[in-house]
Amino acid sequence: MSVTDYSSDSMPAYMSDPTDEQLAALNMAMDGKTFKVVAYAGAGKTTTLKLISERLRGRGLYLAFNKGIATEAKQKFPGHVDCRTFHSLAYRHVPRDITAKLSLPRFSPKRLGDDLGLRTVQVRRQIEGKTNYVNLTPARQARFVSDAVSYFCSTHASYPAPRHLQFPSWVNESDAEQLREMLYPAVERRWLQSIDARHPAGIGHDIYLKLWALSKPSIPADFILFDEAQDADPLMMGILTQQPRQVIYVGDAHQQIYEWRGAVNAMKKLPLPQTLLTQSFRFGEDIADVANLLLKALQEEVPLKGNPKKKSSTSKISAQGKKDAILCRTNAAAMTQLLAGLKSGHKVALQADADRMLKFCKAAESLKAGKSAYGVPELAYFYQWSDVQDYAETNEGSDLKTLVKLVDDHGTDVLSQAVNSLTDVKDADYVISTAHKAKGLEWGKVQLDDDFYYDVTPHGLKINPEELRLLYVACTRAKDTLDIQHIQDLISGLKTGKKVMYGS
Asked: Which of 40, 75, 116, 497 lies closest to 283 in space, CA to CA?
């Protein structure tokens, strides 16, 4: 079929004026081939997918990363399209006695170290040309083991291998090799414990997802729409590329902000035909100009087009001025903004699980006082707060990292009080969110906080690609006003052509 097969005359009412790009995506879908849709921020991705799903026949499957997006999609997509997450697909096809382990308490690094029979070892550390010796406790080694299992679970590998053990860069190379040899049996054992229904340690969701992937699953659908494909890890890509049916990958390579979680940016790596959605419906030219400066710094040659029917501005929002969202780089800054907002008598909403925060604060207080933690299953095996701090630094415990940092930075009393003072999003004066949490959302007036990571020097702009992508996500959340006052030096530098140096 050619692009002319579908025209705007044959479109449903909600798509009375489709762009040529949207028609091109539809016609490519009708050819029945697997391809990718590169969709810039606000470029009508969901509308285009809905249109495609209405035209394709047979059983469809829309795959999203989180339950909220999948639930929302159910309201938008036609009845013959099932909307799910990867995890929910896996959960249905893995034995119940394995998924039951999700509700068991997790082993702390110390408990796991004891369980695996690990002993303290010494490794060499190079500091300013001098060699120091560092003791790696059983708990510290157990963290390496846990991380290795998590890393293995995100890969396309069929069995854990020594290469899945990752150590800090300061560990001497020959010591790292010896550690790999020594700890690999523990990694193997930990993986086998994870998939053993009789073993008492709780598991994370990555375990049953990996088990499902290893079964070489055939997904029951005639076509698959995979949203936010840039955030996929090798495991998910391995499952999808093996499916003998049409898969449409949709995403924006420049919105890949989960590299630290193992995302591989499928939108760039997949050798498939592609079609583009570059016309944003969300904002006008002023905001598009800021986004394009960031895209250019990311070496993107195809610009994002603003909506010619929308007027947007990048003017400063005054302290008393109305705003809909404040976007921060870090959770600590978001909490600081929350505390400041409450102090000023504002009704503030926060993109976070408030109930979980309160329970966590209570459990943290218990652990600090040397008592057991109640009400938070994943803390049941911890006996002191420092163990939780250690665990939060592992991949397995990364879901706790945010909460641990908030407790350490602000104290449980202040935090509990602030959380108890939160307002529901629909009744709030404004929302405070991290840029990561803001992905996929939009607001009228958005203010950026001052905690983004970059450095303006006389020689150029030091910023890493992931930070540029995060700023691109943050800037493209605004519809009407984007307050860039706190990153003005960066934007001015990009505008005047200052050299961009990718730094850490």
From this structure: 40
